[in-house]
Amino acid sequence: MMTCGGLGQAQPVNEDIHDLVKQVKSQLATHAPGHENQDLEPISFRSQIVNGVNYFIKCKSGDQHVHLKVHKPLPHTQEGPTLTGVQTGKSDQDEVAFF
């Protein structure tokens, strides 16, 4: 069970997470130049309920892994997801954590 503000357990990705990564991929140019041209394969994710949902997503990018922090606002705002942070240079052994 996840509490509001707490970070949930790691989960396997689903189609919604794949779509979320596609929606924010172009924003990588600002946070991690060069990665926007790489294929991103979501591996796992954790979520945090805030004023919307923060997703912490582990992705394979070329021969390394990156961790994405994506904020998805509440539906009534009619705003799309925003990439709010990126951690590069990660390995397949690194767990996704709050950042």
Explain what the structure shows.
The chain has 99 residues and is mainly beta. The protein has a single domain (11-90), classed as Roll (Nuclear Transport Factor 2, Chain: A). The chain is 14% helix and 41% strand. It is built from two helices and five strands; from the N terminus they run βααββββ. A five-stranded antiparallel sheet has the order 1-2-3-4-5, covered by helices on one side. A hairpin with a 1-residue loop joins β2 and β3. The two termini are 21 Å apart. The mean pLDDT is 88. Belongs to the cystatin family. Residues 5-90 form the Cystatin domain. Pfam families: Cystatin. Residues 79-90 have a biased composition (Polar residues).
Brief write-up:
The protein is mainly β and 99 residues long. The chain has 2 helices and 5 strands; from the N terminus they run βααββββ. It has a single domain (11-90), classed as Nuclear Transport Factor 2, Chain: A.
- Overall average residue pLDDT: 88
- The number of distinct structural domains comes to 1
Q: Could you tell me the radius of gyration in angstroms?
A: 13 Å
**What's the end-to-end separation, in Å?**
21 Å
Main beta sheet, described? 5 strands, antiparallel
CATH structural architecture: Roll
Q: Say how many strands there are.
A: 5
Estimate percent helicity: 10-25%
Beta-strand content bin: 35-45%
Order of helices and strands: EHHEEEE
Structural class: mainly beta
Stretches with pLDDT under 50, minimum 5 residues: none
The CATH topology corresponds to Nuclear Transport Factor 2, Chain: A
The CATH class name reads Alpha Beta
User: What sort of overall outline do the alpha carbons produce when their principal axes are compared?
Assistant: globular
Q: What is the number of helices?
A: 2
Strand order across the biggest sheet? 1-2-3-4-5
Protein name: Cystatin domain-containing protein
Organism: Brachionus calyciflorus
Domain Cystatin: 5-90
Subcellular location: Cytoplasm
